[in-house]
What we know:
Elements: H1 3-24, E1 29-31, E2 35-37, H2 46-55, E3 72-74, H3 75-87, E4 92-94
Parallel strand pairs: 1-4, 2-3
Amino acid sequence: MHAPYYLASKLVQEIYAAHVAMDRGLRLVTLRPSAVYGPGMSPRGVLPTFARALLAHEPIELADGGRYGVDMVFVEDVGRATEAALERPVRGAFN
């Protein structure tokens, strides 16, 4: 399972960026979108895979018994969040 390494790399990146921002007096905003979906996504992604199975009246198989949860966010909402982070005087991390 690669998730712990991936998540650790994200945390290290945030710590490094916060240090650089503080050292240089910069405003830092970190956006943490979870699972982004929408136009242009891979046809092998979870939503297209589930949709194909449902349309074919096939069962959906959940890995690891469905114990892993994820927050889906539409790609246009990520764009709006990015725009808001650039236009507003906010700081910090946003999930």
